[in-house]
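Budget justification, computational time. The allocation requested in the original proposal was used primarily to generate structure tokens for proteins on the priority list. As evidence of use, we reproduce two of the resulting records. The first is shown immediately below.
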Amino acid sequence: TGCLKDDSNLLDPAKTENVIEFANTANLISPTTSKYPLLSVNIVMDANATYNAAVSYSGAHNAPQDITVEVGVADPSVLAFYKSQVSAASSYTLLPASLYSLPVSKVVIPKGSRRVDFPINFPNPDQLYGKNYVLPLVIKSASSGIISGNFNTMLYLLNGINRFDGIYTLKYRFGANDRGYDLAPTTWYYSDVQLVTTGSSTAVMRNLNVGSPYPHAAVANGLPTSITGLAPLLTFDLGSNKISNISNNVSGTKTAVPNPAVTDNRFDPATKSVFASFILKEAGRSDMIINDTLIYKSPR
């Protein structure tokens, strides 16, 4: 070891060079063994949706000057090669050209910064739901700097979701019932749940707790249980954001209907909270009102 020279440049980030690449703007789900990276991207299915991919000047330094970067759609062989490496990608297909547009082909990373958005427009985002469409992009050129050899190409797996999709804190309580559940008007129970897109205007409520897919934990004789077989399916009016119907997404003896005494079941776009009052019906038991408030926490 006495004949080895210490090259501190290899350890000092300030003495390394930046690279121009696609930034990680979503959930990177590609395995480390794949040649190309793939991001799973949620696109809200509201009219004329836009997603901003990002081009990054990655490293220890800011851009020393304006850097013009040309971006385009990668060759279809990129997706074909990815599918040959990743068996789970067998259902992925190229996004049809009619379902997107690229308003620009060049973007500028400004001097002194490290990033710029590259917009992708979706005129009919409702067509993205359940399709496993992929858009491959490539950095074609840069006016200066080094283009990354690892993240110069990025695959975007597009998932259509509605505006209600997300992770929420569920705050709920029960009305009169013959199940022994707490009736105290001041008692509220809490759990984290998901609203999962099932269509452009529908979402099903799911529990995040492992082993309990049903969102409403109940209290019987002072002990926590769960209302099994009940996963509320909420249908929204996209114009008014009101809930037009509530049903049970699980087949069986339990059904659910909106509470007719409540006329303001809704999604509040300002707070992203959801208010839902409905009646649980089950043969051999009395009807039970369930009042839900879902407080938005984060994207799913």
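The second record produced under the same allocation is shown here.
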Amino acid sequence: MRFRCLYFIVVVMLLSQPLFAADDDSSAVRKKILPGDWTFVSTPALTVNEKLYNNWSAAGNSTLVFVFGFNGTYKYTHQQFVWDNVHDFSLGVDRQDLDGNQSLESVRKNEDKIDLTSTISKRLRSAWNINFSVNFKSQFLEGKNYATSGNSEYTLVSKFMAPGYLTTSIGFEYKESDWNVSMSFLSGKTTFVTSQEVIDAGQLYGVDTTGGRR
């Protein structure tokens, strides 16, 4: 019994010795990792454009266009890495006078974009970094191919996530203060078509939809 107790005490002392030595060693250097800083730049924009044709010999359709855009850049700078995020959105609608009675009866989408990019870069040497990047693209509203000048006859060609594109890449980056060059040695692209209506319209965007694949 005494042998077992003595053995237990010796084992505990041996296991705990490195811990006590680390606490007592005042010459040990502990590297302090400083917290990072965020930089935010957001730019919303609303553009309104009007063209009115009345008794105009060169002809043309009167239009009223609204385009809303948003561009955001969010950067996290750390001692060990840099995380860049870019958000680019736009959505525009125009109203057109197709029959010349100044009624602006036709309402159509003229711009629609979702573009998100996120990149994490780690410095290697001087201006060289190794990075991992993810990019996502799609749209907000339905995309239509109109068969006539009116709005009643059209073919549905796209919707949100039909298509949607996800691109990932790993590579090297040479980055200066106002420009950069990225070289990817490994990348992959995934195409999503999640709308059955778009598939039924024959818009597959290269996706093999047999067996319910999307």
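A brief technical remark on that second record: The beta strands are 37-51, 63-77, 82-96, 106-125, 128-138, 143-146, 154-158, 164-175, 180-192.
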